[in-house]
Specification:
Elements lengths: L2 H12 L5 E17 L2 E19 L2 E7 L7 H12 L32 H16 L5 E20 L4 E19 L2 E11 L7 H14 L9 E7 L1 H10 L6 H5 L20 E3 L22 E5 L2 E2 L6 H7 L7 E2 L8 E2 L4 E3 L6 H6 L3 E9 L11 E12 L2 E14 H6 L1 E4 L4 E2 L7 E3 L2 E10 L2 H14 L2
Parallel strand pairs: 7-14, 13-19
Antiparallel strand pairs: 1-2, 1-4, 2-3, 4-5, 5-6, 7-20, 8-9, 8-13, 9-10, 11-12, 14-15, 15-16, 16-20, 17-20, 18-19
Helix pairs in contact: 1-2, 3-4
Length: 466
Amino acid sequence: MDYRHLSQEILNRGKEKMEDLEVFIQNNKQIEIRTFNGEVDKYSISESGGLSLRGIAHGKMGYSYTEKLDESSIDMLIEEAYENSKYIDSPDKEIIFEGSYKYEEIQQNTSNLSNIAAEEKIQFLLDLEKEALTMDNRVASVQASAYQEFQSERYIMNTKGVDLADNSTGAFAYISVIVKDGEDTKTGLSYRIFNDFKEVDYKEMAKEAVEEGISMLGASSIKSDTYPIIFKNTVFADILAAFGSIFSADQVQKGLSLLKDKVGEKIATDIFTVVEDPFLLDGFYSRAFDDEGHKTIYKKIIDKGVLKTYLYNLKTANKDGVESTGNGNRGSYKSPVTIAPTNVYIEKGDKSLEDLISTIDKGVYIISVQGLHSGLNQVSGDYSLSAYGYEIENGKIKRPVDQITIAGNFFETLMDIEAIGNDLEFSIPMFGYIGSPSIKVKKMSVSVILITSLCLFLTVFYEEGI
């Protein structure tokens, strides 16, 4: 479709009623494949997208959108945006951007995902599932064997001269296995995030998932106490993502972040640096411009423990009298402009995971946490998460540990980081745009989840009718 012609026609007609306008077009395509018991359990191709119009009339911004990308929608879009602008009461100034002087060129390796036949992707999952099931007789079943691929495109044109377009693609595959030894049941997971299908080895993935599950067999709790902790790279990436809103200028300006007035101050240990790199090679969120048409910028959000910047879109930057950091974001074409990061990661250190483990006499290596959506407070920084992993003794992994809760405060955790690994990985729950190496923390409260006591209480509660 000729987005440029349609967008120009909307802007030309809209100028008769509004001072400035912007057209934003977004299209997404997703392929999802799942196998189960040697058969294709799901194969779906979904497409979504549409066009949104923002227009300023009498100093107020109005919005409208449609899924119908043709000229029959033009009059409706303009009229709805104009009418909606009458009811906007926000004192914050909305901006149609005039464009950046220069945009960086994104260097990405060519993706081959669209050239791989669906049959080959299905066969990959079938091979992955079969490999895991035949690897060890303790593998009871494959809980999930799945592949997801996305393609997306954006187009922005406005009356101030912005005319920008880009597209991106990526995929991830994962497998979750269930292993059993008698009554003891555990799970193991492995995943890959990629742009090159040929880079993914199903045998390696199956081995990782099975070995993780088997290594957790026989797990039990550990004495409640304060221990030095090592977080698996992807686990700390998930925790960083869960607290990501504290860096948003919008949250800061609303008083919902304890980082208010902290720019230039030390908020983490000296060895801790957080980078946002919108130009990262093969990064899932690499982009030259944000969803307002502002150029993206490489920056260190935290540099050697010092907070250097918040993340801004045009509106929040205008309130603080600074330049946007290129973090204007729309969750979809229907959404208003908010703030979101591109590729964010913690700079890796020079120590291997084995090096980190060797420095601990008695501690815990956490490989999974649950409750990130309910077990933390983004404003106070407090968190309490159920977890499992391995007990460390005399610098070595001793045994698997589960039924524990780790508790702390994110801001205190940042100050207590003692060492950083060299094993930077990006996390799949965050769709590959938040990354971290393994992280060693000086101390953290670890407590037992009293499942036995809870079950006894519930039994009494039920039998006695309390």
